[in-house]
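Quick start: read one record
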Amino acid sequence: SFLQGSKLEIPLWLAKGLHDSKRRIISTELPKIYREAWRTVFSADANVVDLHKMGPYYYSFGSQLLNFDNPENPEIAQTILQTFISRFRRIMDSSQNAYNEDTSALVARLDELERALFRAGQKGLNDFQCWEKGQASQITASSLVQNYGKRKFTDMDG
């Protein structure tokens, strides 16, 4: 058994299950990358941070943290959003302009969401270049656009 005030690391899913604002079974402590000192670093220049090293699921994990009653939630949410905005342009620019170059150093520093965006950008560029050279018979809508269209249509049905 654990004494009151004991600290231990548990998975996020378990912390969410035990977290109850009425009964106060557990209280949570922010991982260091979401604390004020790191938020200051992100606001100064988010592009210098190696997100993969700090936490490969920075955005998704951070958004899950907002389920806990932390007084710093508004600042955490703002930092996550601003980090994404400030890094997005560089990621997409790199995915479009670094064709046939070694991008492993850049990609190694990206969160998993950013890596997926980078790959999507490179695939889009590759598909366009194939079409431009006549190597593709037609341009097709990306799966993201197709899924968005299906969702909108389904929403209208309900």
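The mean pLDDT is 84.
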